[in-house]
Amino acid sequence: MNSFTPTDRSRVKRLHERGKYDEESVFALLDAGFIAHIAYVIDGHPYVTPTSYWRTGRVLYWHGSSASRMLRRQSPGLPVCVTVSHIDGFVLARSGFHHSLNYRSVMAFGTAQIVEDPAEKSRELDRFIDRLFPGRRASLRPNNVQELKATTLIRMEIEEAAAKTRTGGPKDDDEDYALDCWAGVIPLRQVIGQPIADPKLRGGIGYPPDLAAFHDGADLCEVLAGNAEKLD
Amino acid sequence: MNSFTPTDRSRVKRLHERGKYDEESVFALLDAGFIAHIAYVIDGHPYVTPTSYWRTGRVLYWHGSSASRMLRRQSPGLPVCVTVSHIDGFVLARSGFHHSLNYRSVMAFGTAQIVEDPAEKSRELDRFIDRLFPGRRASLRPNNVQELKATTLIRMEIEEAAAKTRTGGPKDDDEDYALDCWAGVIPLRQVIGQPIADPKLRGGIGYPPDLAAFHDGADLCEVLAGNAEKLD
Predict the structure, then answer these.
(1) Helices H, strands E: what count in chain B?
(2) What per-residue string of b and e applies to A13-29 under the rule 16 or more CB within 10 Å gives b?
(3) Which SUPFAM superfamilies does its entry note (chains A, B) (predicted)?
(4) Which class is domain A16-231?
């Protein structure tokens, strides 16, 4: 099993038993999401922006961001921290102190660089669509040269990454189990709603079979994880 | 209307018409969420961690984080960027280039400091429970002195903040409307699932009326926004 090697930067310190560094755990959490929060430093100050991302092997990609101008001036690249979080539930205990959250998160570290190679750029922008909406690209007007030029693509090879998860119910102090207090887990999920057709949609175009997984009530993590399996 | 005054740090540059700086817009987005991604700099390197937060006026609070050790060595405080994002839907256009996302996000900047005042600490930890689960505190065993000591509470007065949102359908190139391609919006929401009682729950304790808003299928943003109204 391939693993990332944690240093002080990525090693899970608080509740370290919740940390994992193997590719399988890290990739599964990355592939089940599509929004990362990406942190970088400009003039010594921290910034974090939410951004759609995708993964090819150990490389994460995302579209040009507010860090792009910075990146253009800094050719060796910009150190970044990319965090992806899935919040799975509130954990309600019998004291405020023992309330908690169930979650799955990944912190990945690396150096962001602008992709200059047109072939990599074109291939990866296609992959971005394919990983979200498999089969959809066949019905789209392909990217043209101006669009490829206008898009800044950023890549970051994952140098270190840690996955951290919490599951299960509350853990209370022994004497608190006697309290007259409801305790348990209130689950949370990100779900898909009823698709809304563009009012300008041409007559006769129905909801396409390649979007069938995106139906009202579907679990987003499951849909994305299923898409990732089709890619690899 | 009170507003934050943007500088280069918070001013929305890309698609600036999507940016708002008034307290009402910023606070509404903060109050409809409970997980922030908090970025800070240690030894010149960026870090971002997902954390539960709450708001009292222009101050954001959260529990001790991996930045705490750093903070203890740096008494004037640590510059941080706090980002809260709600992802509302995929926007499917007729070309890859025009695909987009509907979202509501806030970036807030300030200086993180450890709360040392026991009264503020006790009051705010209570508020954390009250803003999530109004009425619940009456049934909990109150915090004890050791727990208050063991909890690091962090405060950040918002110095600058920007809200940024996108809503609505795809905007395609004129000639692409003729394509045989489905386009529209696939909504996304964070919803509550069926509550799971702790297996160690004492007999006779039912799901309490004060958690009634947390029912299967409820929209998390709406529940949290409703809770915030009860607080103010």
Answers:
(1) 5, 9
(2) eeeeebbbbebebbbbb
(3) FMN-binding split barrel
(4) mainly beta
Specify the range with the lowest mean pLDDT, choosing from A87-101, A107-121, B56-70.
Answer: B56-70
Taking only Cα atoms into account, the Rg of chain B, rounded to an integer number of angstroms, comes to: 21
The 10 Å Cβ neighbour count of residue A167 is 12
Among the four given CATH numbers 3.30.565.10, 2.40.30.30, 2.30.110.10, 2.40.30.10, the one describing domain B16-189: 2.30.110.10
Of the candidates B41, B180, B192, the beta carbon closest to that of A46 is on B41
Task: Say whether residue A183 is in contact with chain B using an 8 A CB cutoff.
Answer: yes
ipTM rounded to 2 decimals = 0.95
Amino acid identity, position B126: D
* Inter-chain CB proximity B46 and A9 less than 8 Å: no
Write down the domain spans for chain A. 16-231
Pick from B44, B187, B190: which is nearest to A188 by CB? B190
Distance CA A53, CA A37 (A): 10
The partner residues of A54 in beta bridges, in order of sequence, read A61
Q: Residue B192: which residues within 8 A CB-CB, separation 6 or more?
A: A186, A187, A188, B214, B215, B216, B217, B218, B219, B220, B223
For chain A positions 57-86, those within 8 Å of chain B (CB to CB) are 66, 79-83, 85
The confidence band for B232, taking pLDDT boundaries of 50, 70 and 90, is: low
